[in-house]
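Researcher: Next sequence.
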Amino acid sequence: MVGKFSDWLAAKLIKNHDNLLDENVRAQYGILEGWISIVLNFFLGIVKIVLAVIFGSISLLADAVHTLSDMATSVIIIFSFRYGQRPGDTKHPFGHGRMEQIATLVVAILLVVSGFELAKYGIDKVLAPEALDVSWWALGIILITIFFKEWLGRISMYFGKKIDALALEADSWHHRTDAVSSLLVIIAIIAGKYGFPYLDGIVGMLIGAFVIYLGWDIARDSVDQLLGSPPDKNFLKKVNEIATEIPKVLAVHDLIVHQYGFQKIISCHAEVPDTLTLSEAHTLAEQIEYQLSKKLGLHATIHIDPVMPPSEQSRELEEVIRDYIKKDERLADFHDLRLVGEANHINALFDLVSVSDLDEDEQDRIKSDLKELISAKMPGIRNVQVYIEPRFAFHVG
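Model: Next structure:
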């Protein structure tokens, strides 16, 4: 139901709403969510403040502050999407897409500050408890606000998932914590009616602690993205599928991803038969770049790795390398194997994929061990060159 309503609303208010690879369309989704949030939160916040003043409930007042704080975060989100869609300039050649992560971090900080304030109010109320006489009709109104906040949270999450925006997903949790805090307020007020007035303050502290934790969790995720978090497995799978659908592209590896908001800039190696001419290999690289741009909306740079047809000697060497990898839990796989030379003067070159960070001494030991093992089992191979991929280059296949 929420998804259908959200899609209907987007279709009415956003031009070309299905083109999610368009930065302008994506920005309009964020702006739409922000305005829906502002309007609804303003109305709900006023309703809660009026009820809090009438009945003198500190937990209800804290809940109202939480609701109105959602308006501030929505203003930040609107600004971030407007600013983030600006094209690159001389000072910011990669664009302004990371403004989304900055906005998410600001939202998280505001959540933490609000949480401390709510906890402080709760402590004051515990130290000076006061029985509340709140009418059942007022509790019914609060219950209705919970429904609207959960509904708003689901819209925000739906839009966030649809356009892959952490800022909107963070705003969704902001809305949902407001719904949870309202539910706790109802519990506290009912408990007060039955002789437990101090629960009002305890609930205020619990809400504050919960908001602090939520803010910290969201801040951690946004900082991870600003620092450079790894791409998810689904993205790696899509890159591999799109590239290898092109005839004569055997595999891709060594994927490096730079992300600026929604915009991704990637580079990777593509394995192709070594029988191709330089012109044919170049054409394949351009085809991969075009397909990745068309289907994933990113900018790609492709490095071509020529791969020789398998031979008895290469198969034997593959088995030696695989046996070694199975015995070392730090290693996951290898690729880009090449044998260069003739007869008993062959050079072997290949890349290793590690599953953990390896310091320089560990890498040197692995390379030395492999060289000794290969030389002992395959004396025709005179030289072995091993390259261990850096941690920022991801194995795709």
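Model: The chain is about 65% helix and 15% strand. Residues 338 and 349 are 5 Å apart (CA to CA).
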